[in-house]
Design goal:
With 499 residues, this protein is an alpha/beta fold. The protein has 18 helices and 19 strands.
């Protein structure tokens, strides 16, 4: 493992990690072991921030129960119980490393929790959140695995690559997942404490990750990667840094703009970058126009907006995230300054979502900005990969669409809403709905629905348009001009495919 020894923060030697790993294996403190002890209901309650069912379920679980109460529930445990649970790690070594703290009763000094995927389980080290620490977090606070991290994990393409950069690694969780499909992983961060905890996470999980410290892309200057993932400090507002995990020191959405603007230059030809980002909704400006201005030429880009937050809700959420009560004098002062900045900049909302970028090296890159605010179950990562595949197909075959035989996949349904009129029931809404992936929906009119009904792989699109024109007494050229943009959009969304 390549690591800068100047990182400031908790120190976990290889020997300490080996002994701690032995204790965690011995007790069964992994994703499956914790779920087995707690059961589905208590585990779900813990995820909602309700610890009591988990506490009850852990009481007869011996050393594993001690670790669950200590690290997952924020409880205080007797020294003898902790000594037994973490053996062969000594209490002195655990206290010196900052893993636990206290005297007669010990509490967690760091957040140590299992994190798994469909293949297996890891352990992730981070700082305690404000609820467990009992106060505001420190300026160089290192977040645990939260909703933003999990959403990026699910949105990341998992195809084999040679090199991958995790920009702004934090606790290292993105790099853990990256190690499943990337041969070499590099992780960077501006925070020395984040890199120290990421280093401990990687050592504990016996992963070889190159760790570099520096701002933005400076640590990897003149290097390129097959894939880049980034969970940047995307919180928007005045140009200040209260907490390094969320604040960039840049004004507004300039942090997201910086990453989008610079990232493609650090990709290999055809390489892909994916990040979480925020963008301002400014009065009189379309958010899509705003983010498209960030893009360098020759970059395929897919901006997916998952949510838009009201400024007041946004400020209150991030104050509480740092452990600041919005009702306190400090909370009101910070909230007022933040909201004043939003008002001065004419911001009426903050958009949040995923960005997928590809270094395409073409004169006319594909750039799509769209809302995806509905709930869906499938991870977005596989969809992002196939979205890029479909963009490639369209680029290669765009001049041949009329000669192509298309078919509607079996996962796509046509939904109708009929409204009673003077002549009986009349369709007021016709909506094409893809039932897998992100659940794309497209409203279509009667002619479009009829055209798609014919897309069963037997006839080329041109023949279907000729038949449709003849049946409805419309010029074929007029229908073709209207149909081709729809066809391209449906292909990009996986709702129409070449037979």
């Amino acid at each position: 493992m390549s690591v800068d020894t100047s990182f400031a923060g908790p120190r976990f030697s290889d020997e300490l990690c080996a002994r701690l790993r032995e204790a965690l294996h011995r007790t069964g403190y992994d994703a499956d072991g914790v779920l087995s002890v707690l059961g589905g209901a208590a585990h779900a309650a813990l995820g909602r921030g309700e610890p009591e069912p988990a506490d009850r379920a852990s009481r007869d679980a011996g050393d594993l129960g001690t670790l669950i109460r200590l690290f997952l529930l924020g409880g205080a445990e007797p020294r003898a119980a902790v000594r037994s649970a973490i053996a062969p790690v000594s209490l002195d070594d655990a206290i010196e490393a900052g893993l636990v703290r206290g005297d007669d009763l010990l509490r967690a000094g760091l957040d140590l929790r299992p994190h798994g995927d469909e293949t297996g389980s890891w352990w992730v080290l981070s700082d305690l959140d404000s609820d467990q620490s009992g106060g505001q977090v420190r300026p160089d606070h290192v977040l645990g695995v939260g909703h933003a991290s999990l959403s990026l994990i699910r949105a990341t393409i998992r195809r084999p690559v040679d090199t991958l950069l995790d920009l702004g690694t934090g606790n290292g969780v993105q790099a853990l997942h990256a190690a499943r499909h990337a041969r070499r992983v590099t992780a960077t961060d501006v925070s020395a404490r984040a890199l120290a905890l990421a280093d401990a996470t990687f050592r504990l999980n016996e992963l070889d990750v190159e760790l570099l410290r520096g701002e933005w892309f400076a640590p990897v200057a003149r290097r390129t990667f097959d894939q880049i993932v980034c969970n940047p400090p995307f919180v928007v507002g005045p140009p200040r840094v209260d907490y390094t995990y969320r604040d960039s020191g840049l004004a507004g959405d300039d942090a997201s703009a910086l990453v989008v603007r610079q990232l493609p230059a650090f990709l290999t030809d055809g390489g892909v970058g994916q990040l979480l980002a925020s963008w301002l909704h400014v009065k009189g400006e379309d958010w899509a126009d705003r983010v498209q201005r960030w893009l360098p030429p020759g970059t395929d880009a897919w901006f997916v907006q998952r949510d838009v937050a009201d400024p007041a809700l946004y400020v209150g959420t991030w104050l509480r995230d740092a452990g600041i009560d919005p009702r306190s004098a400090e909370g009101r002062a910070k909230g007022a300054a933040w909201l004043d900045w939003f008002a001065d900049e004419k911001v009426d909302g903050v958009g949040f979502g995923f960005v997928t970028l590809r270094r395409a090296g073409v004169a006319h890159a594909t750039v799509v900005c769209e809302d995806l605010r509905q709930s869906y179950d499938d991870p977005l990562g596989p969809e992002a990969g196939t979205w890029l595949d479909r963009v490639d197909w369209l680029r290669e075959h765009d001049g041949e669409l009329l000669e192509t035989r298309f078919r509607v996949p079996p996962t796509v349904l046509l939904e109708r809403v009929d409204q009673l009129g003077v002549e009986g029931w009349e369709a007021s809404v016709r909506r094409l709905h893809r039932t897998d992936g992100p659940g794309w929906q497209h409203d279509v009119d009667e002619l479009a629905a009829a055209l798609l009904a014919g897309c069963q792989g037997a006839l080329p699109l041109s023949d279907l348009l000729e038949l449709l024109a003849a049946a409805h007494g419309r010029p074929a050229g007029e229908l073709t001009a209207a149909a081709l943009p729809m066809i391209r959009e449906l292909v990009r969304h996986g709702m129409l495919e070449p037979a």
